[in-house]
Amino acid sequence: MSDATINSTVNQPEAGFGDYVALLKPRVMSLVVFTAAVGLLAAPGAVHPFIAFCAILFIAIGAGASGALNMWWDADIDAVMKRTARRPVPAGKVTADEALGVGVALSGLAVTMLWLATNWVAAAILAFTIFFYAVVYTMWLKRWTPQNIVIGGAAGAFPPMIGWAVATGGVSVESVLMFALIFMWTPPHFWALALFMNSDYENAGVPMLTVTHGRRTTRTHIFVYTLLLAVLALGAGVTAIGGPIYMAVAVVLNAMFVLGAWRIWRRDEDSAALDKYLVEKKFFRLSLLYLFAHFGAILAEAALRPWGMGGW
C-alpha cells in the first residue's frame, strides 16, 4: 500500500450513527410521519394503537429509504451546492454504494412490513411513493424540466393517503384532498427556497424555474400557485375533513400566505438584495408553518369528532 493510499485512508472521515441518520433525511421524514399520522387518525374507523405505531414506523422507514436513494443518485450535484455539500455522501462519510444499499434494503423492509401489518393498498401506495421520489423525480424530472418540483411534489403528497389507507384499506375523496393540499403547497414552498438559493441550483445545473426562466417568472408562478392553493385549502374546510377549527386556521394562514406571495410578486428586481432575501426567506418559513398548521387543524377536527364537537 502506498503512502498516498495510507494517508487517504487515515484522512477519510469515519461514518457515525448520526451520518446514517442524516442519510435518511430526518427533517423530511418528520413531515412525512406527521402528515401520514394525520391521514391515519382522521380516517373513519379505529386502528389498534400498536398497529398504528407500526404503520407509522414503516412509513417513516420508507421515507428514509427514499432519502438515501436520493442522496445516492444526487451525490454529484449535492457536492457543489452549499445547502447540501455536508450531506454524508458528498462529505465522504458514507459511500454512494452504501447509500444505495441502505435505500434498497429499507425500501423492501418498509413495504413488506407495512403490507404484513396493515393491508396491500397502503403498502402499494408506499412502494409507488418510493419509486416516484427515487426514480421519477430524482433520476428523471429533477435534472430534465423546470416543472420538476411541480410534478415531483406528488411524492411528498402521498403520506396522508398511505395513513388513510392503513385505516380504511382504500382511497377516498378526503385522502385525495389531503394529497392535493400538499401537492399544491409544494411549488410555492420550494420556489421560495430557490429564489434565495438560486446560485446553488445554477452551479449544479439543476433546471429550477429560477434558473431557466428567471426570478420574475418564478415570483409570478409563486403568486398564482398560492392563489390556487388558497382556494383548495378553504374549499377543504367545508368537506368531511374540515370544520370550524380548520376553517379558522385556513382563513388566517391563507390570508398571510397570499399576502406574502403578493409581496414577493410585486418586488422590483432592482430592490436591495438583502430586502429580497428577507422577504423570500420569511415566506419560505411561513410555508412550513402553513402546512403543519393545516394538518394540525385536520387532526384537531378528527380528535373532537367523537365528542360531537368536530366538523360541521
Automatic annotation (TrEMBL):
EC id: 2.5.1.141
EC category: transferase
Alphabetical UniProt keywords: Transferase
Protein name: Heme o synthase
Source organism per UniProt: Lutimaribacter degradans
